[in-house]
């Protein structure tokens, strides 16, 4: 949360700075040696007409012989506008007031370092992912109705499953489960007691029966196929907007939740329907396809606010994104409608259902693994850099594989279900297969192994993706301790740590880190890490340092933190 808020502030600040550059420095990029126009002098006089005589003079400042900007001179001191410094050096600043006194705060970096409080625990919170909210990201099209995981539009607008993102979604919910307060939960219908006030339209039936297989009471419903009214329950429910229910599809079925804007009275219909379309919207009707898996029980967990938000921001006809923001404070749930033919149980409304959403992610990894290769494929084209090959759909990511191990290890630990462990162990295969043969393994100078976030030719050696892969291997090695089949995780982790210790300082430029080693493999300019990636590198080293106390990690992290505070490596 901290991080998001901080970034928002900076964004506002950057916009403010940018617009002040436009107004204040509208003409500051005059070419050198243009005579100082007299107009400027006149402007200056007008500006200070009402003020007392200023103690400074305007003075032109010649920037590296390239262009002039206007500065101010006071005695022997020259003052350069911060808006210029901000752009030129990418340094951030803002005015702040303390006890009524204003002061200016200068920041080299916009990111924050969060030092780990204790030794990293593979059963616990993942990194600082309790602060992540993957589903609200703009590059997430929606959470699919079919499997309850995010669908990405980052590199392809139509949408695709991105294992890295699906894992981050799972890990954030797992982490939130451990850090957030207990949710408020209300059971709307569990068929255990007498029938609630369900309204049953003509030709429809709702029957409470005992399900032998599940050993519990459930409701079976049938309505005419095109029934609009169906069977419904009127509600007046506010504040908790995560719905969960168990559904058994007998034939075409739609579960509709009707939301109302409390101020404007507009109605929104969220339809969870046995169709294949992932998401479609028709005015205030939003359809999520839940697929056609008949005659078996499924648990659906839906964050209604996210579903509504993603739905109304997609406009099928024009593809134009209309940005409407509807928060839970503005809404209430007024109806649940059952249409078609199925069975339903355990309709619950909660403030959150983190563990359910975590398991949606974990199940996705079990159900979508290539059993032969052990990989979770990225079915999208990806071009990392000019000079590197295009990755054709189907490629594996060392980071995606590693993240999957982090999810599956936790799912195995939490549930004891072997299926998660089996998938995780199978997921080690791409770590042992060279990139050129469809795996994620690269070698640096034929000596040090590396798990590639993007398995490019030539290799890219992306640092953060590699460390995430290592953390995944560590998670599996720790959780599956004692299982021979999982021994490879330990070996792959140890080999990776040797590379990390030997290669870490290759990413150091003396004032910031590089994102990858393309400057070595492509012989081009280094790809300097954005501050948030630089901070990620440090956060990762601090985590690694809690499980391996080699001083390379603490010393390097300390130096890299210094860069965020304006320090630079000494020169000769
Ligand atoms: C910038 O300079 C041009 C030509 O010197 C002038 O026409 C224009 O009004 C100036 N704009 C501002 C914002 O001062
Ligand atoms: C965390 O998950 C457990 C089930 O493992 C659940 O009982 C608890 O309510 C959840 N807490 C939060 C904050 O999500
Ligand atoms: C279910 O829907 C499909 C597609 O809309 C339709 O072809 C089929 O007839 C429906 N089944 C029943 C039993 O109405
Ligand atoms: C409803 O929830 C209860 C309690 O968790 C569970 O025992 C039962 O199996 C669930 N019903 C279905 C149909 O899954
Ligand atoms: C698994 O991967 C292999 C090798 O890339 C490929 O030939 C096969 O089609 C994949 N299987 C599935 C089910 O995608």
UniProtKB/TrEMBL annotation:
Entry GO CC: Golgi apparatus
Record-annotated D-glucuronyl C5-epimerase beta-sandwich domain positions: 215-340
Enzyme class name: isomerase
Subcellular location(s) of the protein: Endomembrane system; Membrane
GO molecular function terms noted in the UniProt entry: heparosan-N-sulfate-glucuronate 5-epimerase activity
Keyword Cell membrane: no
Entry's Gene Ontology BP terms: heparan sulfate proteoglycan biosynthetic process; heparin proteoglycan biosynthetic process
PANTHER family: D-GLUCURONYL C5-EPIMERASE (PTHR13174:SF3)
Recorded family membership: Belongs to the D-glucuronyl C5-epimerase family.
Protein name as annotated: heparosan-N-sulfate-glucuronate 5-epimerase
């Amino acid at each position: 949360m901290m991080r998001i808020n901080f970034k928002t502030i900076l964004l506002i600040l950057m916009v403010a700075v940018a617009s002040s550059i436009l107004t204040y420095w509208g003409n500051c990029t005059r070419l050198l040696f243009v005579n100082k126009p007299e107009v400027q002098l006149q402007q200056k006089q007008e500006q200070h007409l009402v003020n007392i005589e200023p103690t400074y003079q305007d003075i032109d400042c010649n920037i590296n012989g390239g262009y002039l900007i206007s500065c101010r001179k006071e005695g022997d001191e020259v003052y350069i506008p911060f808006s210029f410094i901000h752009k030129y050096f990418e340094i951030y600043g803002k005015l702040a007031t303390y006890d009524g006194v204003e002061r200016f705060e200068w920041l080299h970096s916009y990111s924050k370092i969060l030092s780990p409080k204790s030794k990293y625990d593979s059963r616990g919170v993942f990194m600082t992912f309790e602060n992540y909210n993957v589903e609200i990201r703009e590059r997430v099209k929606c959470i699919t109705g079919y499997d309850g995981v995010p669908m990405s539009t980052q590199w392809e607008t139509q949408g695709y499953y991105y294992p890295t993102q699906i894992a981050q979604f799972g890990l954030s919910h797992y982490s939130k489960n451990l850090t957030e307060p207990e949710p408020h939960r209300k059971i709307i219908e569990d068929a255990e007691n007498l029938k609630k006030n369900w309204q049953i339209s003509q030709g429809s039936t709702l029957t409470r029966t005992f399900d032998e297989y599940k050993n519990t009471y459930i409701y079976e419903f049938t309505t005419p196929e095109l029934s609009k009214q169906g069977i419904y329950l009127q509600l007046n429910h506010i504040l908790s907007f995560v719905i969960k229910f168990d559904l058994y599809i007998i034939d075409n079925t739609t579960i509709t939740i009707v939301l109302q804007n409390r101020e404007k009275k507009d109605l929104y219909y969220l339809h969870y329907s046995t169709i294949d379309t992932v998401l479609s919207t028709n005015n205030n009707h939003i359809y999520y396809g839940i697929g056609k898996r008949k005659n078996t029980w499924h648990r659906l967990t839906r964050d209604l606010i996210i579903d509504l938000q993603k739905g109304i921001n997609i406009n099928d006809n024009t593809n134009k994104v209309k940005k409407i923001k509807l928060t839970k404070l503005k809404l209430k749930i007024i109806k649940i409608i059952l249409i078609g033919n199925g069975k339903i149980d355990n309709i619950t409304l909660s403030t959150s259902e983190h563990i359910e959403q975590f398991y949606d992610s974990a199940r996705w990894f079990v159900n979508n693994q290539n059993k032969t290769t052990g990989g979770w494929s990225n079915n999208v084209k990806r071009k990392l850099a000019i000079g590197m090959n295009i990755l054709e759909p189907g490629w594996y990511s060392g980071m995606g594989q590693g993240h999957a191990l982090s999810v599956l290890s936790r799912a195995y630990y939490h549930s004891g279900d072997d299926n998660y462990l089996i998938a995780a162990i199978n997921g080690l295969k791409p770590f042992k297969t060279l990139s050129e043969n469809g795996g994620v393994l690269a070698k640096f100078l034929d000596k040090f192994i590396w798990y590639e976030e993007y398995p490019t030719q030539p290799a890219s050696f992306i640092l953060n993706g590699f460390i995430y892969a290592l953390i995944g291997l560590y998670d599996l090695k720790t959780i599956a301790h004692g299982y021979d089949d999982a021994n490879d995780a330990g070996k792959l982790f140890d080999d990776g740590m040797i590379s990390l210790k030997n290669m870490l300082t290759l990413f150091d430029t003396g004032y910031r880190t590089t994102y990858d080693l393309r400057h070595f493999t492509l012989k081009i300019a280094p790809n300097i890490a954005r501050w948030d990636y630089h901070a990620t590198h440090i956060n990762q080293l601090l985590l690694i340092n809690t499980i391996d106390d080699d001083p390379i990690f603490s010393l390097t992290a300390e130096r890299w933190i210094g860069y965020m505070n304006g320090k630079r490596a000494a020169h000769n």
